[in-house]
Write a structure and sequence with these properties.
CATH superfamily: Galactose-binding domain-like
Number of strands: 12
Shape: elongated
Strand content: 35-45%
Distance between the termini: 74 Å
Largest sheet: 6 strands, antiparallel
Number of domains: 1
CATH class: Mainly Beta
Structural class: mainly beta
Radius of gyration: 28 Å
């Protein structure tokens, strides 16, 4: 009986140096830093509403009876982001079935590969929905829902671009781009009478990276 107990103990003592040789995993140093996909992306500003004049001529809206609408650059209570002093105010007197279209007076271009597009929106608890129209590198126009504005205050709203949006350059000498064409707001109130809907827009940004290029020379 004593021999059967001593043998496992002797074996365990003999193996202790072997276990002691195993080292814990080391943290990567500066030379072998792990780079994730997100680290390839950076945020750029597409429109900050600071210098571009917007007015009623940059909008259109349905007018079946007594609908009204308006656009104006404002400078009180901008979005809580650095260096923001001005933003765009929009209003429409309408109901469900009506719409307000905002046509930017300058071309809003994204010439890098884009993962997401974000916009700061101030909602006033209306149930209307805001959408964006984006022209991809093939010239196809996509309507991308931004979301319902049934909240109060500033909120950063983000649209994720899928593989359905063509972006990559087909040839090294052919640089292709995305273009934000317009924004569409549709009131959500379902009553018989129209109501004033208000919302406000600040910085439009995009998460982008450089497009992949083939730098390998196959003549070898």
């Amino acid at each position: 009986m004593k021999r059967s107990v001593l043998f496992p103990l002797i074996l365990l003592v003999a193996l202790l140096p072997v276990f002691g040789q195993e080292k814990p995993a080391e943290k990567p140093g500066a030379a072998d830093k792990v780079v994730t996909g997100d680290q390839l992306y950076s945020e750029i500003t597409v429109e900050d509403f600071e210098t571009t004049p917007y007015s009623d001529k940059d909008m259109s809206f349905t007018k079946s009876s007594e609908q009204q609408a308006g656009l104006s650059i404002r400078d009180q209570f901008p979005a809580p982001i650095s260096n923001s002093k001005k933003y765009l105010g929009a209003k429409i007197y309408g109901k469900q079935g009506d719409s307000l279209t905002i046509n930017p007076p300058k071309t809003l271009v994204i010439d890098k590969f884009c993962k997401t597009i974000s916009i700061w929106v101030y909602g006033k608890n209306f149930s209307g929905e805001l959408s964006m129209f984006l022209k991809d590198a093939d010239g196809k126009v996509h309507r991308l829902p931004i979301g319902k504005l049934n909240f109060l205050g500033w909120r950063k709203m983000t649209v994720v671009l899928t593989d359905q949006v063509a972006q990559e350059d087909k040839f090294l000498t052919q640089k292709r781009q995305l273009e934000i064409m317009k924004f569409l707001y549709k009131p959500g109130n379902t009553g018989r009478l129209p109501l004033w809907n208000y919302f406000y827009m600040d910085d439009i940004t995009a998460m982008v990276r450089e497009k992949y290029t083939d730098r390998q020379n196959d003549e070898w």
